[in-house]
Every structure is written in C-alpha cells, then in structure tokens.
Amino acid sequence: MTTEDGQVRIGIVGLGNIGSYHAEFLREVEAAELVAGLDVDATARRTFAEEFDVETYEDRADLFSVVDAVIVTTPNRFHEEYAVGALEAGLDVLLEKPLAHTVESAERIAEAARDADGICMVGFNNRFANPVEVLKHDLRAGRYGDVTHVEANYVRQRGIPGRGSWFTSKEVAGGGALIDIGVHAIDLALYFLDFPEVVEVSGTTRAEFGGREDYAYLRQWGADEGPGGFDVEDSASAFIRCADGETVSLEVAWATNRPDSDEFVIRGTEAGATLDRNDHELTVYEAGVGGANHLSTTSVETRESVPHRDEQRAFVRAVREGTLDRNTVDQALSVQRVIDAIYRSSAEGRAVRLDE
C-alpha cells in the first residue's frame, strides 16, 4: 500500500533503541516517509516525537489509520500482537527478528501472514551485508558445488545485555543468547544452504555467567541489575541435521572465556569460504589440478554496506511492488522451529526430531 505519489508511509511500533535505530535509517530510504510511532510508554513516545518530529500514539488503531506499513521493534513477547494486528488491518509489516518468543506464537504470525493481503518481511538484516550478498550469489552460481556443512559462530567473550532488561527475561524474550543472537547465526547458515528441511537437532544450552554475583565485564548495553534479573541461557551449542545430508554446527554465546567470534565456515565440494561477519571479510578457498596440483586463497573486497538501511530499502520496494522474495515468514518460522528444538533437546537430554 502506498500514497498516490508512491511514498510508503511508515510507523514504528516500539520506540526503544532499535526503534530509533530504524527511524534514523528511514531518513535515507527513498520512497519511504516516517510518519508516526507507537509505544505504551509515555516517556518513549515523547522522546521519539521530539527527535523525529512525528505523531506518536498509545493505541494501535490510531497508528494503523495513518500509515501504509509498520516496522515492529517491540520486545519479542509482543511481536504477535502488533504484527498480526497490522496484517489484519491490511498493512505491510517489517518484523524484527526473531519471529516470536515461542514457536506457537510464531506459527500464529505465519498463519496470519499467509491469510493477509499485505506482505510480512522478517528483519534478518545480516543477509544484506555485501560480503553475504557476494557469497550467496556465488553459491547460487555453483562456484562452491554442493555445500554440505556450515559452521556458524556468534560468540562474545562478554556481551550479556543489561541483566534485568527484557533481553534476560524468559517470559518476555523467550530465551537468552540463542533466541537473541543465535537466531542470526541459524538464519544465515540455513540461508547459505537454501533452507533445506531440518530433520533432527541436538543441542545444549547453559547459564554459566549471567547468574553470578562476580560476573566480570567491561561494558553492557543497559544497566546491570545483577543475577536476580537473569533467568535465561547465556550460551548454546548445537548440531543440526537436514534431510539431504547437509549439517550445521552452531556455537552461540553472550559470555564465554574465549575470544569473540562471528565467523561462518562454508564447506562445499568445489570450494569453501570463511565469512567474518564482524570484520566484513570474505575469503574463498579452492583447489585444482590445472598445470599442477595447487591451492588458492582469494580475499574478496566489497564496498562498505549498511545492512539495516538496505533491508529497509528492500522492504519498501516489496511494499511498492506487492511481492516479497526474501526474508519471508516461512523462512523465519523454520529458524524458530530449530531454536525451539534446541531448547527441547537441552531440556530432555537427547536429539529431537522436528516431526515429533
């Protein structure tokens, strides 16, 4: 849905840090106009209105009446309420990851999206980073042959969000490090494999640091209220097996006694690669017999990109064209089912089949 001049009027739902982050980038997106915001907190509404010079609302019906599309950036527990409400109102939706705080809530969002006239895009912004775009292009072109395994790492030596924030509340977030940052690692791994059918997951989650009185850190995103505000996991390890033999090994942590790592390792029959998402570096590894047996290593350089902004541009384009071909709800639901299976596997101490 757009205005007569093709502009997409957008409202932000959830006016915290990530909502303001999205609002900043919308200023750089052609054919997009930020017109309103919504939050249940009066202070957040007032601050956002002053910073971005737009109307803010407490009631979702008021916001829905003045926009063509919404970007939902609320805590996970409230994704369903606002995304489903917007879809039922005929609006287009960009929903921040993860799809929801539970797999049951995610299923309901996916059902609403299938029945809606508008589109629902899920905010896995890492797919829009230029090294990722190059890697995905070459995967589609066959440079890597058959990709059989992906090592996915998203590990912080110390990086728990403020203990006591909604990020560390199972009731609101649905989990900890796995559902917060692990969701990105799982999404990229399955994206590189073209979202094969996942048949079995074995995983373990751990809470080793967030509940400690002597948790040592240098910085946090929010104020630290101590271990009493922490009832989720701070790390997870998992192995994912797919129907055609592809596999994914996963390491995720908010806090560990090891260096940070945001690296993906791609293993294919014709080539392999390492993607360092943190440093935006892509390295390709190949071998051949032409002339003589040889190994080659290629460093791929790309222009600097802003994934959140490019994600928004893709969303606005999809709204204007009325079709969505990436970052779909069904893909996000596949990721959510893997997350749920890891939690169940850890709780039950066994591998979990997704058809159970």
Detail the topology: elements first, then pairings.
Blueprint: E1 8-13, H1 17-26, E2 32-38, H2 42-52, E3 55-57, H3 60-64, E4 69-72, H4 79-88, E5 92-96, H5 103-115, E6 120-123, H6 130-141, E7 147-155, H7 170-173, H8 177-192, E8 198-206, E9 235-242, E10 247-253, E11 263-268, E12 271-276, E13 281-288, E14 294-300, H9 307-321, H10 329-348, E15 352-353
Parallel strand pairs: 1-2, 1-4, 2-3, 4-5, 5-6, 7-10
Antiparallel strand pairs: 7-11, 8-9, 8-15, 9-10, 11-12, 12-13, 13-14
Helix pairs in contact: 4-5, 5-10, 8-10
Describe the 3D structure.
There is one protein chain. The chain is α/β, with parallel strands linked by helices and 356 residues long. It has two domains: 8-123 and 310-326, NAD(P)-binding Rossmann-like Domain (Rossmann fold, 3-Layer(aba) Sandwich); 127-305, 2-Layer Sandwich (Dihydrodipicolinate Reductase, domain 2), CATH 3.30.360. Helices cover 33% and strands 26% of the residues. It contains ten helices and 15 strands. The strands form two sheets. Strands 14-13-12-11-7-10-9-8-15 form a nine-stranded mixed beta sheet, covered by helices on one side. α4 runs parallel beside α5 (103-115). The longest helix is centred in the last third of the chain and has 20 residues, at 329-348. The radius of gyration is 21 Å and the shape is globular. The chain starts with 7 loop residues before the first strand and ends with a strand. The model has no long low-confidence stretch (mean pLDDT 96).
